[in-house]
Amino acid sequence: MNTIETLQRFEETVQHYLHELDSFSLEQLQYTPQEGEWSLGQMYLHLVNSALHMQLKNIELCLKPDGEMGAKTEAGTAVFDLGGFPPVRIQVPPSSQYTPPQPTSKEDIVEGLQAVVRQMREVEPVLRKSSEGCTIPHPRFGALNAREWFMLIEMHYRHHLLQKERLKHAIAG
Is the pTM here over 0.90, yes or no? Predict the structure, then answer.
């Protein structure tokens, strides 16, 4: 998939998230089904924060000319060969560094998603014209170049659709 198709698919996924967001109250977005599990709102903030503060930042770093080249891990190669994450639940132990806060408003979530879309639109034409450039290591997937980080954002948002559906059903009771 090229960067234009990736951006289009990403925008469609974000539109789906925004459409679904309309149907939830702030209280529902803050509802935690069980101890140690994220609320729907935390999942939304995880998507926004990981894109803005890690993935898009790593794209910028990869576009600098003085970077290094590295290799993907076996897991990274598998995810990119598959074109997405396998449909399995990935749980990370709760921590102050990784667990997103509860949302304080729906508007913050909407603004965050819109900011990610804006930055994805801004960087996509640059990626089309860039070389493979350098790589920045992902904790699980190994060395990814700017285009791969870009594709990872789309794959990550798509992967969390499964969690969104599970949490939506938990809210409905």
Answer: yes
